[in-house]
Amino acid sequence: MDEPKISQYIILAIVTLTLWVLILSFLLIKAVSHYRKLGKSENIKDLGNILERIVKRGDLEAQEISEIRSAFARHKDLALSHFSKYALIRFNPFEESGGDQSFTVALLNSKNNGIILSSLHSRSGTRIYAKEVVGAKAPNHKLSKEEKEAVEKAARQV
After folding, report:
1. Each residue of 78-98: b (16+ CB within 10 Å) or e?
2. If phi over 0 gives left and psi between -120 and 50 gives alpha, with beta otherwise, what is residue 89?
3. Alpha-carbon torsion angle 115, 121, 122, 126, nearest 10
4. Element (H or E) spanning 30, and its range?
5. Cα–Cα distance list, 25 to 5, 22, 30, 134 (Å)
6. DSSP secondary-structure letter at 134?
7. Cβ distance 36 to 50 under 8 Å?
8. pTM of the model
9. Which is it for the CA torsion 58, 59, 61, 62, positive or negative?
10. 82-135, pLDDT tens digit by residue?
């Protein structure tokens, strides 16, 4: 082969290798400076210790998230048991008294369990009755027309 062609190939190889070394050096310097910045912010010189601390923090946060989820589930179940639906029906059960002085109130939770309070007002006095509601029905007592209406109205609420 010709002497000038071999020297051209050698020069081309040297230039290519030089560029390759420069690129790798640049990337190495960039990576090292990144890890030094990370180490400075943590005041730790060893990258392994930094990574261990990050993993420990992640584990603690995962544990806290788990505790928050279980507390949320407990509070959600508790909230479902509170009265969140209600209805008020006023009526006049007796012809001799004037106005809608009597009423029935249905207080239900999200599962349609709760109570009905009924007040019957007459000239001789007022009587108050309470009945249990389970699944929008009264298992132990018959409901009056107004009480049924109140329970149905409350049960339709979202």
Report:
1. eeeeeebbebebebeeeeeee
2. beta
3. 70
4. helix 3-42
5. 30, 5, 8, 76
6. B
7. no
8. 0.57
9. positive
10. 999 999 999 988 776 667 889 999 999 999 999 999 999 888 888 999 999 999
